[in-house]
Design goal:
CATH architecture: 4-Layer Sandwich
Largest sheet: 5 strands, mixed
Structural class: alpha/beta
Order of helices and strands: EHHEEEHEHEHHEEEEEHHEH
CATH superfamily: Ribonuclease Z/Hydroxyacylglutathione hydrolase-like
Strand content: 15-25%
Number of domains: 1
CATH class: Alpha Beta
């Protein structure tokens, strides 16, 4: 098994996003003037295993619009086709694609894909709810209309510390697990590498390993308690299985995967 990092640009986030104040003040801080952090990557991932190539997330597009708390640094050369090319692949090489959630920096690049793109059915339902549609309008980031999103259930029962999962490969070495919180239907992908480590491609469960260890919810989660519960599940899973934690915006995720650095 090999896991390739595909960087589709960077994003500069407000400190108020990365370290929000408690309660409603956390969301208010996103709109107020304040300091900005250093740029962080926008990662997608390509898993090579058993003759198949599985894409996890699709990254951002150059047409993305900035937000009051996020300034994107994405050019056409950063988009998914070029990121794949830099790793030695093309769009046609992808056998299966799945997104962790439907925020633009994880789903917009799916416009370059020809086949279906799996998404958790709970995420799809939320995105089409009144609250989900309102969030998309505020962010000026509608779900790409020309992508064949395919909602799927995580109906495989528990997997380690996670309540629900779905196999993505016949041998069960690549699975999607339920990690709600950042969005209600957020999922993560676990790839069990050749040494038996569980590489957790965690999307936006947290923005960094530091946030995971601090058990700190983010500023945009609809249900902060649910996100903290998911963080605790990740930490509990790491007690049971050697786990490499790789969220999409952590600068160190690629090095942790390469070095097999576990929690």
């Amino acid at each position: 098994m090999r896991i390739h990092a595909l960087q589709t640009g960077s994003v500069v986030l407000k400190e108020a996003f990365l370290h929000p104040a408690p309660g409603a003040r956390g969301r208010l801080g996103l709109l107020l003037p304040g300091p900005w952090a250093e740029p962080v990557p926008i990662h997608a991932w390509l898993i090579e295993h058993d003759g198949r190539r599985i894409l996890v997330d699709a990254g951002e597009r150059a047409s993305v619009k900035d937000l009051p708390f996020a300034r994107y640094q994405v050019t056409s050369e950063d988009e998914l086709p070029h990121a794949l090319h830099r790793a030695g692949f093309g769009v046609a090489d992808i056998d299966l694609a799945i997104v962790t959630h439907l925020h633009s920096d994880h789903a917009d690049g799916a416009v370059f894909l020809d086949g279906p793109v799996l998404v958790h059915a709970d995420e799809w339902a939320y995105a089409h709810s009144r609250a989900g549609r309102l969030a998309q309008r505020i962010a000026r980031a509608p779900i790409p209309a020309d992508v064949a999103f395919a909602p799927v259930a995580l109906d495989g029962g528990p997997f380690g510390a996670f309540a629900r999962h779905r196999r993505l490969t016949d041998d069960g070495r690549v699975v999607a697990v339920a990690t709600p919180g950042h969005t209600p239907g957020h999922l993560s992908v676990i790839a069990i590498d050749d040494e038996g480590r569980h590489v957790l491609l965690a999307g936006d469960v947290t923005d960094s390993l530091e946030q995971l260890r601090a058990r700190r919810p983010d500023a945009v989660a609809p249900d902060r308690a649910q996100l903290v519960a998911t963080i605790d599940r990740v930490l509990a899973h790491a007690q049971e299985h050697p786990t490499v934690y790789a969220p999409a915006h952590d600068r160190e995720s690629t090095a942790r995967i390469a070095g097999g650095e576990t929690l």
